[in-house]
Amino acid sequence: MDDPDQDSTPELVADDVHRVPGAVTSEPAYVLGSSGGAVTAIALVTAHPEQLRAIVTHEPPLIELLPDAEQLQAKTEDIYDTFRRDGQGPAWLKFGRLVAPDFDPGEMFANQGPPSAEMIANGERMLAHSLRPTSLYRPDLAALRAVSDRIVVGVGADTAGQLANRTARALAARLDLPVVEFPGHHEGFVSDPEPFAAKLVEVLQTRV
Hints:
By secondary structure, the chain is an alpha/beta fold. It has two domains: about 25-60 and about 140-205, 3-Layer(aba) Sandwich (Rossmann fold); about 70-135, no CATH class. Helices cover about 55% and strands about 10% of the residues. It contains eleven helices and four strands. It has helices at about 10-15, 20-25, 35-45, 70-85, 90-100, 105-110, 115-135, 140-145, 165-175, 190, 195-205, and strands at about 30-35, 50-60, 150-155, 180. Strands 1-2-3-4 form a four-stranded parallel beta sheet, with helices on both faces. The longest helix has 19 residues, at about 115-135. The model has no long low-confidence stretch (mean pLDDT about 95).
């Protein structure tokens, strides 16, 4: 936040996040991260495993783990270039087509009114400074395997075939972990908050 033009890398955000548990408790923490937050959780458990009892990494978009990573990298760069050249609208359309094979632009905006100033600013920040560092993050698989007993990899029940579902499954395979299915889609905690929370409690109770 001190430098609005600084890229928001998973390592940088994880360095911020790791200060929170130490400020409020001496006990290891539970952390849930979804999408980009799931990548932050991975960076956090890599750098500070002693602070964590468990992380739930829900659909981390780690395209570097996929066999078509090179093509996905190029598409990610194209989204960024489109944003810089043409603005948010065209960039978000390309983003939607990248992350979901059945992407429907009409559905994407169906329940939204005019974007607020905050939404516009957040979208600009994401496209300019978070998209590439998060999507192109290369997890330290050796370090993660060493703490895999603290890692839960989750996917949405309604996201089969979507990019973040694929990347989550690729991560689980690399770490020899099961995939835990959570209710809803990529943002199941928004679309299906109560069943999502119930599943989260169920998962975390096995980590007490």
